[in-house]
Amino acid sequence: MAFDLTDEQRELRARASSVGIDLASRRSPNEGRVDRELLLELARSGLLGRLFPKGAVSAFDLCLLREGLAQGSTAAETALAMQGLGGYPILQSGRAETVERWVPRIARG
């Protein structure tokens, strides 16, 4: 199956890759951990907010985002994935009060 990415999809993947490379360049290669600052950097870049409503991307676009991010920094991609693992169940099954309280906090890192 052949298909072309839209300009927006190419831009999303390129931005994620650029952010990942930037984050990786400022970390020690032997650090081997995901810290709070990494999450905050993802939030500041706007990529973390793309996981949830108001900034949400399609499942395919999320794959592009994660692929681009992982090209630069597997630690950053892992941090993004962990936020999704915590946030999606709340978003899908949480009471309205729970969603209102936690999803914005998760999206901010």
Task: Describe this protein's structure.
The protein is mostly helical. It has one domain: Orthogonal Bundle (Butyryl-Coa Dehydrogenase, subunit A, domain 1). It is built from five helices and no strands. The chain has helices at 7-25, 36-45, 59-72, 74-93, 96-107. Helix 4 (74-93) runs antiparallel to helix 5 (96-107). It is globular, with a radius of gyration of 14 Å. The model has no long low-confidence stretch (mean pLDDT 86).
CATH architecture: Orthogonal Bundle
Let me know the average pLDDT.
86
Major sheet summary line: none
Overall SS class? mainly alpha
CATH class: Mainly Alpha
Backbone shape: globular
Question: Can you count the helices?
Answer: 5
CATH topology: Butyryl-Coa Dehydrogenase, subunit A, domain 1
Low-confidence stretches: none
Global Rg: 14 Å
Counting structural domains, the number is 1
Secondary structure: helix percent: 55-70%
Strand/helix succession: HHHHH
Kindly estimate the percentage of residues that lie in beta strands according to DSSP.
under 5%
Record field, number of beta strands: 0
